Write the structure tokens for this entry.
Amino acid sequence: MRFQQSLLACVASGLVAAITPPNIQGMNIVFSEDFEGTAGASPKTSVWNIMDAINTNDEVQTYTTSNQNVQISGGGTVQFVPRKSPSGVWTSGRIETVGSWTPAPGKVMKIQANILLGDNLAINKQGLWPAFWALGDAMRHGTQWPQAGEIDIMEQVDGILTGYGTLHCGPEAGGPCNEPAGRQKSTAMPADGFHTWGVTIDRTNDDWTAQTISWQLDDATFYTVTGADINDAATWSSLAHSPFYILLNVAVGGDWPGAPNLLTLDGYGSMMEVQWVAVYSS
């Protein structure tokens, strides 16, 4: 596809250099990943868990550790490429950080990634669900979803040029996050190019009801939730005072986008490509 061809041309000419996360005034980078490496390599397993055997949301893909589904591009990016076998079986890629990060009292924490989505038309992306998100580390220690907390920083479904930011929290039905749908807002997203998606957790106010979680696209805020909106101290703590780990994946099918159809295309035109991921703290 076009992305891979242009990338390989740059690699061959020696022009590619890693694009690192930008500095933000008043903040320190406490974690960053620029996906340097050889084309076809796996993401660093000291930093990322490469997931398989995940079965959630009635998705139809199987996540694999194959570089056909998740690979370092050789141009300073990681690519998540959904594939469809001749028999109609879908596979894809999902990675999760080994580490997790906690918003500190009195400080601001940001989680950001620079993301490009494949250039297949929306009619050819039915059922595809790329996502950049974070889960409460409590999930790894026995707390059930959604009580552990989930912050969806960027999701897109069916190739439609709309990005979603969502909170999941509290009980499985209803509650302050209106489960299972979650508290959600959308924004129009550009049709092409890399764009920076992020979430900002602001604990600078001692009053938890005045603290905020906000979502940004290219540094412009499109959604804000306050502690007062959640209106439950323990639930807010699970979202704004607790450690989170970062996830990147492309799902296929599922309750939200619906199943892929005969027009849905696999390959690089349906991929998600990520240039860098970073966590900042003031």
